[in-house]
Amino acid sequence: MKSFVIAIDGPAGAGKSTVAQLVAQKLQYTYIDTGAMYRAVAWKTLQQQKPVTDALVLEVVKNIQVSLQYADGKIMVAVDGKDVSREIRTPEVTKIVSQVAKLAPVREKMVLLQRQMAAQGAVVMDGRDIASKVLPDADIKIFLTASIEERAERRWRELKGKGYKVDLAALQKEIAARDQADSEREISPLVQTADATLLDTTGMGIAEVVAVILDMCR
Ligand code: DC
Asked: Which of 33, 34, 124, 126 is the best mutation target for the ligand 1 pocket, counting ligand atoms within 8 Å of the beta carbon and taking the most?
């Protein structure tokens, strides 16, 4: 089989990273989680222990080294050489990540890295602007979504599994707010491109979604 570049975009909680990781594993491709990169910048910003302003984020992004390593089906995210794979998934990081991701210098630095990582092909990359901006020539473009209720419930289960106590209604509101921020920002907003296949996973299991995507690669 020819090796493909697969772009998966969609709103928060659509299951992009779970599905993209499994597809990458099956095809023995590299998985690139671009959301993790914006989370890494957000995490380092919080480490400064200062009010989160655009100026602070821009200062942080100037000197940050973000690297992604994908091995044994797991993704490792490092900031300045430190493994922060767990730290970037906290609710505190999630709360400020849209604010961080809307800034042009942040996006420019991350997009450059993302393109470098995808340069050899055989990659699955997920995010918000992969088909529209990062890899417009991707062989397969998927817009993965699900109802807001189901996305909130999936995130709720995931956070509960990690030991967080979260209110489902509050989580739904937060996801809706993040979707709005990500879709309405000026630079590279979340969009479904005309050439992307819409995959609404409401009511679908993970294995089923993975099978649909693998079918598209055949
Ligand atoms: O997929 P995620 O929830 O880990 O992404 C975290 C945030 O990063 C998301 O709210 C928007 C931003 N993001 C982005 O702007 N562009 C991407 N390609 C990926 C994520």
From this structure: 34
Rounded to the nearest 10 degrees, the angle between the axes of helix 104-118 and helix 91-101 is: 100
The residue range of the domain holding 157 is: 5-217
Q: pLDDT digit string (tens) for 64-107?
A: 999 999 877 788 999 999 999 999 999 999 999 999 999 999 99
The ligand 1 atom at the shortest distance from the C-alpha of residue 16 is 1
Tell me, what CATH number does 162's domain have?
3.40.50.300
Pocket of ligand 1 (CB under 6 A): 12, 34-35, 38-39, 97-98, 101, 127-130, 178, 182
Nearest of 50, 49, 45 to residue 62 by alpha carbon: 45
